[in-house]
Automatic annotation (TrEMBL):
Its main location: secreted. PROSITE patterns: ADH_SHORT (PS00061). It comes from Mycolicibacterium rhodesiae (strain NBB3). This is 3-oxoacyl-[acyl-carrier-protein] reductase MabA. GO terms for biological process: monocarboxylic acid metabolic process. Residues 2-168 form the Ketoreductase domain.
Length: 234
């Protein structure tokens, strides 16, 4: 049995990924700023390196070395660029980009020791298309795409793959909150009507893709951006 760590595992996409990797037969731990009712879930902020290190020590003691990592924690912000404060810019970059740096750097020694590892970073389909009022978010998620490609090249010789899944619109608390605030330019149903496969994405669509990318069979796939968006971006 392998041990997987999922960040943002309390809600939405991260929660679904954690459930799927557990169903696949892995030990699964999650870290999140929000408490979870699942076993081996730890409260830690991905921007707080000391808190991450403490949580990872606890995970290793309970479940052994971590050789699968899915970085799904994230937050968004909707603000006209000219009104974006430096503090809001920094917060969005800190959580969505620096969080991936911290957790990945803290977990990688386990993978190097094992000579095997799988990293999947959840970015966003907005990195294909851009998204108005989301400059900080799209900038941070685009940087995650680049970070992941470089990790793939650097650690491929060590048996570690690194890939990105940039989701399209997925029905989660994050998307529902944006809809309620009128930030989507229409309802979720309106978005679904414009998507080629004519439905909104489900967290399970992302989880099943991650399940494959962390499997033994996916060992020749690395440095890739694997879009899961119902055909919205091609
Ligand atoms: N839902 C979508 O349509 C969509 C589309 C593209 C990308 N994404 C990305 O998918 C990922 C999951 O999003 P979701 O829709 O499930 O959102 P969500 O809000 O339901 O879940 C995000 C989780 O991340 C956690 N989190 C936030 N900040 C954190 C921090 N600093 N440290 C640790 N945990 C933190 C939250 O507590 C929450 O449990 C995010 O990275 C998001 O940017 C979502």
């Amino acid at each position: 049995m392998k041990t997987a760590l999922v960040t943002g595992g309390t809600s939405g996409i991260g929660r679904s990924i954690a459930d799927r990797l557990r169903a696949d037969g892995n030990h699964v731990a999650s870290i999140d700023i929000t408490e979870s009712d699942t076993d081996f879930s730890y409260v830690a902020d991905v921007t707080d390196r000391a808190a991450i290190d403490a949580a990872l020590d606890a995970v290793r003691s309970a479940l052994g070395p971590i050789t699968i990592l899915v970085n799904a924690a994230g937050m968004t912000s909707f603000r006209r660029f000219t009104n974006l404060t430096p503090a809001e810019w920094s917060k969005v970059v800190d959580v969505n980009l620096n969080g991936v740096f911290h957790v990945t750097q803290a977990v990688l020694p386990d993978m190097l020791e094992a000579g095997w590892g799988r990293i999947v970073n959840i970015s966003s389909s907005s990195t294909h298309s851009g998204s108005p009022y989301q400059t900080a978010y799209v900038a941070a998620k685009s940087a995650v795409n680049g970070l992941t490609k470089s990790l793939a090249l650097e650690y491929g010789p060590s048996g570690i793959t690194a890939n990105v899944v940039p989701p399209g619109s997925i029905d989660t608390p994050m998307l529902r909150a944006a809809e309620e605030k009128g930030l989507l330019g229409g309802s979720i149903d309106d978005i679904a009507a414009r998507i080629p496969v004519r439905r909104i994405g489900r967290p399970e669509d992302i989880a099943s893709t991650c399940s494959f990318l962390v499997s033994e069979e996916a060992g020749y796939i690395t440095g890739q951006i694997v879009g899961v968006n119902g055909g919205r971006c091609t």
